[in-house]
Design goal:
The protein is 50% helix and 21% strand. By secondary structure, the chain is of the alpha+beta class. It is elongated.
Length: 401
Amino acid sequence: MTIRDWIFRILAYILLTAFGLFMLFPFIYMMMTSLKTSNDVFNTPPRLLPRSPVMVEYEGEERPTYRFEIDGETVTMVPTSERVRFGFFTTPELINASSPRDSQILYEIPFDEAVETGETLTINGEEFDLYQIIIDGETLTVPLAYRGSKDEFVSIDDPSVRTFAVERLANQVEKVEFQFNNYQAVFDLKLDRALVNTTIVTVGVVIGQLITSIMGGYAFSRIRFKGRDTIFLMYLGSIMIPFVVLIIPIYRLMVVIGWQNRIVSLIVPWIFSAYGTFLMRQFFISIPKEIEEAALMDGASRFRILWTIFVPLSRPAIATLAIFSFLYAWNSFLWPLLIIGEGNVDNHVLTLSLIRLSNSFADQPNMVLTGAAVAILPPILIFILAQRYFIEGVATSGLKG
């Protein structure tokens, strides 16, 4: 391999890695946000890793720490919970009479250290009080632009060292810390119950679709009976019927049976799949007939041929169907919303619980994304474990046996 080939290969790997990271970034950011505190989510600029304030004990309470530059040294300090009134002073030339808070402030002095003169200064029709303040040993008479307050901070090592600042604007000391308790918090809202319900529904739908699709696919591909092709075309044509057309009939049927607000109503209506039957039929057709004929000559029954020969040979197609069925059942929202409803919390699936979670934590995106992470991790894990069979199914679907 030449140097040029190596360069092109390295560039290709770099480019593909960059695109891969770009595609994965939303998922990575979601997972990192699910491990943050609510305050950290709204930090500007946004940060990827979750951070939390470094806390120390002060006067019997846990308080956050901040860094300040005092006399050229970095000092770690804590707030004292005391707010001090401040006066913000400047010169007459720098005062913005129409919007005093936009003035260029030269001096910020605690209000108890300024002496009111009783005089006023009129600037562009606005009156400003004059105060005497001491700066570097010199007494100055300056106008007050506006009043405000600041938080008091004291040094951890020397409480006599103090300074003033607005706490929300101060430089907080932080550390990287993953908030795994977010997951416990969402589970306390019965998300664990919804996870179990979703698992039961998904397993039931997947197993049901696999059984009916395998048996139906075998019947339509290998067993000859009158009207077989016509029945198959009619069954396949049901795919073209929109779900919204079937909602009311299926709902009425569930009410008549007495399955409304019950988990079984999320499983039984969906264990029959025309797409799954079509997929398995097409795969079974590709299996050589000689294998089946040899088994029949040896006295094997149709049922034994299906489960001992066809099913093991069809693992890629079965895995593909299982993944599609899993994703459909796991992410189903409209039908559970109609047949279960928002009030029956005990029978909620994850999609319904996420709606309730987003309403309860509308001001805490980290908790909402924690619930989303709980919902998205199982499908990702299933796909990773079954991707080899899925790729085999896609690769072999266009090959003729």
